[in-house]
Specification:
about 300 residues, 10 helices, three-stranded mixed β-sheet, 3 strands
Length: about 300
């Protein structure tokens, strides 16, 4: 294998989630409903934060950034997966597969970094309230977001560097509903054991370290709330519980996929489905229904919409 890309495989065949037509039909309805709800919920959060002056705070800026990333997650795998549920032969082009891998890893790591930024925001708000506006300035929020994107792009480019020059000259069947990097590596016409180890080590390390850093951070915040119990504690606990729930939803599937010692194909598929379809739906649900300010902003928006329609 020298320099260039010696691939002769022009497309990959995806086996999908299950061969059962009945389950595919159920998944079609389930995924379509969640996809529409996810897109609507995340767009609504972004619109509310952008237009409502009451939500022009660091926490909601980061929440809107997370919703934007969740929109990307929705668009990366769900539309093709839903479309493929109609088809007997599910295929993806080589270029499409590479693009999907790039966006899956870029959006996944960017989301992790934004969750870390949101945890830091809550730490400053609860543990150092007098310095909150000084530390979490507009400049700092933009810096956090830019850093999250930069880390996400760097990580994703590293993943692509591992596969861009690999020869794919024969097998082209992926036992998945999307282009899964570890499975793609196994189809290369060369020994990829070291590359597979690097992929699992890199992704596993990022997810585990980020998860435990967030876990420790939230334990510190919860201890501070408990120690300084006040009238603000219920609101703080409600906000923190929403954040912790989202962290678990994002990290648990990824950690199972990349750190579980005996990978199971079917289990990995449904964990990936959860990450691609369920998490982007639950994020806006959790942040909206557990947050009085967000609910009030959405209520104000719909009230204005009803008044405008009556006038017109």
């Amino acid at each position: 294998m020298e320099g260039g890309n010696h691939s002769v495989v022009s497309e990959f065949v995806l086996l999908g989630l299950t061969p059962s037509w009945e389950i595919q039909l159920l998944l079609l309805v389930f995924s379509s409903v969640l996809y529409v709800a996810s897109m609507t919920g995340n767009i609504l959060i972004m619109f509310s934060v952008a237009t409502d002056p009451h939500l022009h705070t660091p926490m909601y800026f980061l929440l809107a950034s997370l919703s934007f990333i969740d929109l990307g997650v929705c668009c990366t795998g769900s539309p093709k997966m839903i479309y493929d549920l109609f088809r007997k032969r599910k295929v993806i082009s080589f270029g499409g597969c590479i693009a999907q891998i790039f966006f899956i890893h870029f959006l996944g790591v960017t989301e992790m970094m934004l969750l870390i930024a949101m945890a830091f925001d809550r730490y400053v708000a609860i543990c150092k309230p007098l310095y909150y506006l000084t530390i979490m300035s507009s400049r700092m929020c933009i810096l956090f977001t830019a850093a999250a994107w930069a880390v996400g792009i760097s990580h994703s480019l590293f993943q692509l560097a591992l596969i861009v020059n690999l020869p794919f000259c024969g097998p082209n069947i992926l036992d998945s509903f999307y282009c899964d990097l570890p499975r793609l590596l196994r189809l290369a016409c060369t020994d990829t054991y070291r590359l597979q180890f690097m992929v699992f080590a890199n992704n596993g390390l990022i997810s585990v370290v980020s998860f435990f850093a967030l876990l420790i951070g939230y334990i510190v915040i919860l201890f501070t709330v408990w120690k300084h119990s006040s009238s603000a504690s219920p609101k703080a606990l409600s906000t923190l519980s929403a954040h912790i729930t989202v962290v678990l939803l994002v990290f648990v599937p990824i950690m199972f996929i990349y750190t579980w010692p005996n990978p199971n194909s079917q289990m990995d598929k449904f964990l990936a489905l959860s990450d691609a379809v369920v998490t982007p739906f639950l994020n806006p649900v959790i942040y909206t229904f557990r947050n009085k300010e967000m609910k009030a902003a959405i209520k104000r928006y719909f009230t204005q919409l009803v008044i405008f329609r009556k006038i017109s």
